Amino acid sequence: MLKEERQQKILNEVSLRNRVLLNDIAEHLDVSVDTVRRDVKELDKRKLLKKVHGGAISLSFTSNKNSVEIYDVDEKQLIARKAVVKIQDGSAIFIDGGTTCMELAKAIPNNKKITCFTLSLHIAMELVHKEGVNLIFIGGKVSKDSHMSISAGAINELSQITFDQSFIGTGYIDVVHGLSEFDWEVVQIKRAIIKSSKKTTLLCISKKFNSQQKYKCVNVNAITTIITELEPTDKLFEPFKSLNINLV
Questions:
Q1: Domain covering 3-57 in this structure, CATH number
Q2: Calpha distance 100→232 (Å, rounded)
Q3: What is the pTM (predicted TM-score) of this model?
Q4: pLDDT 10s digit of each residue in the chain, 248 long?
Q5: What number of CA atoms fall less than 13 Å from residue 184's CA on the CB side?
Q6: Cα 82 from Cα 72, distance rounded (Å)
Q7: Which residues pair with 180 in a beta bridge?
Q8: In Å, how far from its chain's centre is CA 197?
Q9: Which of 72, 112, 240, 244 lies 20 to 30 Å from 38 when distance is taken between CA atoms?
Q10: Would you give the DSSP letter of residue 224?
Q11: Which residues contact residue 34 at a Cβ distance below 8 angstroms, ignoring those fewer than 6 apart?
């Protein structure tokens, strides 16, 4: 595989997942970790991604600036348009971090009267200017990579709240293995969010389907609704139709 082709595959995977591990990329590309590390270092110097300890993250994941290119932005905006109509006035909702959830935050009308909780600094900065939104930030230690609260304190705060609806993202989803992540702290946060939610809506582009990571978060049937850019009649959803999940 040519270097240019390999690096493009790395960029695609980082953009799709938001965060990746060097070991996973090396296994996926069937090359050494040192080769991937050199590629990531070069891509970081070219400001195409951000190199972090043991992996890489997309620039769009760590910025809410409109100048940063968003991977599959049209699909994510479609998901956001489908999701925003499900937010009722007077409700208390939670919005997760990530680029698809950011598109949802952008799509919320300025006069929508809701209480919105978030762990994400970027989501908070988007919503703080919306007049109708009563914004509550769930605090604690903030990750320098994801710019989200990830501490035990945040989990404790989540345990004391009941959301009418939560909107979450995921890096990986599979009908058998459920939602999964490579970061154990993220798994604990996601579990706490879902446990505190009357309804949980997963916002997920279809390219993430049929993939898994080492740390399982929850079974798919812990989710109330899955929203993708596809029509609910798409064949990709066939394995999910027996799980009593709303497909949008």
A1: 1.10.10.10
A2: 18
A3: 0.85
A4: 778 888 888 888 887 887 888 888 888 888 888 888 898 888 888 888 888 888 888 877 666 555 456 668 889 999 999 999 999 999 999 999 888 999 999 999 999 999 999 999 999 999 999 999 999 999 888 877 778 888 888 899 999 999 999 999 998 899 999 999 888 888 999 999 999 999 999 999 998 898 888 889 999 999 999 999 999 889 888 888 888 888 99
A5: 1
A6: 16
A7: 172, 216
A8: 17
A9: 72
A10: S
A11: none
Task: Pick the closest to residue 52 from 204, 191, 183 (CA basis).
Answer: 183
- Nearest to 133, CA basis, from 116, 150, 147: 116
Question: Residue 178 has which token pair?
Answer: 């459920």
Helix residue ranges per DSSP H, 128-240: 152-158, 184-195
Q: Where are the domains of the chain?
A: 3-57, 73-247
For the domain made up of 73-247, the CATH class stated in words is: alpha beta
Place of tokens 């208390």: 92
* DSSP 3-state percent helix, strand, coil across the chain (nearest 5): 40, 20, 35
